[in-house]
Amino acid sequence: MDDVNFKGKKVFVRVDFNVPLGLNAQIAGINRITQTKPTIIALLEGGARTITLASHWDPLSDVKPLTKDPRLRMNQIADVVQTMLPGVEVEKVDYCIGSPPAKQLVVLENLRFEEGETANDATFARQLIEPYDVIVYDAFGVAHRAHSSTTRIMKDRQAVVGKLMLDEVMNLNWMMVSPKRPLLAMMGGAKLSTKLTLIKHLLSFVDRLVIGGAMAFTFAKAKGINVGASLVELNFVDEAARLLADYPQKIVLPVDTVDNTGRTHLFDEGLPSMGAGCDIGARTVSLFISEVANSGTVFWNGPFGIYEDSRFRNGTVGVASFVSTYGVKKIIGGGDLVAAISLDSDLIRKLKDTGGHASTGGAASLQYIESVVTKTDLPAIAALKENAKNATLWKL
């Protein structure tokens, strides 16, 4: 975007403001919003006539067209943007299609209130982009979605990469191509099934792979350990067993776990029949910290416990407290993990101060890594590349 003259232009900025929604129907984390600030500031300083921010907000149902749930109107989002930019005139509108008001910064209504958005509908895309001169694509978190606002609109206007999008891609490319070794990957979260392909790719080039969260119990089951009432994906136990057999020197599992009653058990000794693993224990925190301390680069995706419950947050926060201050390059990804760490604002600040990157991509980060390995492009990146090939069509 640094090569484009935005002076006097109406700019459509596709952002990813799909932030968590707390139990009180209030925004539970603003990392994805605040990280767009450099792009917005650059457009303001470049003299853009109007900057329109367009995003979905769908933390509840994911991808399906939404009923117009009042909790998911973009009013709260606009309030956060206004707080982030106190000297800028921000206006939220109740529509997606139509000319924006003559304000410095406009926030459109939730894109997923429109069925044409997730359908990647050509007519909706043309109507959406019609009032604007240029697109700035800054929504890495949905770069893996082929939706109207992430791909189709780029057929009708020049599109350029925003500063956050560029930062995300550069960080992940660096990790894939020229990391400082040893390269440590840490994977948390509930299900092995959703991350199996990525884990296989990671094991082909990382030096160590830490497994935490509920997915660790599928590996425990593969080792013949009694997992009690813990979440286990029985259909993936054989896959876990194969990974353990193929990569015995790379995979690191927990050594203790905290169950649903708050009791700690040694991982290899198993759990009682009614016990469900809800967090890693103190010994595992120490083990995972030692893995970080022996690494030159760290990639971490997914929490190690049920962080929404303060009783089972200690494992994730304990490891994060060390990672955030340890002076190596680290990339923290996944909406749940960033939300867990963001509960302590100092951790995010320390992470950035010591060379860390809190990615706005959850599934997008994982699929981007897979795309680099398989030499394919995520849909939004493919659309941006195609748009660049047609540069002679755009008259700016």
Structural description of this entry:
The protein is 35% helix and 15% strand. The protein is built from 15 helices and 15 strands. A six-stranded parallel sheet has the order 3-4-2-1-5-6. Strands 9-8-7-13-14-15 form a six-stranded parallel sheet, sandwiched between helices. The longest helix has 15 residues, at 163-177.
Which tags fit this structure?
15 strands, six-stranded parallel beta sheet, Rossmann fold, 35% helix, 396 residues, elongated, 15 helices
CATH architecture of the largest domain: 3-Layer(aba) Sandwich
Question: So what's the CATH class of the largest domain?
Answer: Alpha Beta
Integer count of domains? 2
Structural class determined from secondary elements: alpha/beta
Number of strands: 15
- The rough form would be described as elongated
CATH superfamily of the largest domain: Phosphoglycerate kinase, N-terminal domain
Count of separate DSSP helical elements:
15
Low confidence ranges: none
Report Rg. 22 Å
Topology overview:
Blueprint: E1 10-14, H1 31-34, H2 37-45, E2 50-54, H3 75-84, E3 90-92, E4 105-107, H4 115-118, H5 122-129, E5 134-137, E6 158-161, H6 163-177, E7 183-187, H7 196-203, E8 208-211, H8 216-222, H9 237-246, E9 251-252, E10 256-259, E11 264-266, E12 277-280, H10 282-293, E13 297-301, H11 314-323, E14 329-333, H12 335-342, H13 345-353, E15 356-358, H14 363-374, H15 379-389
Parallel strand pairs: 1-2, 1-5, 2-4, 3-4, 5-6, 7-8, 7-13, 8-9, 13-14, 14-15
Antiparallel strand pairs: 10-11, 10-12
Helix pairs in contact: 6-14, 7-14, 8-9, 10-11
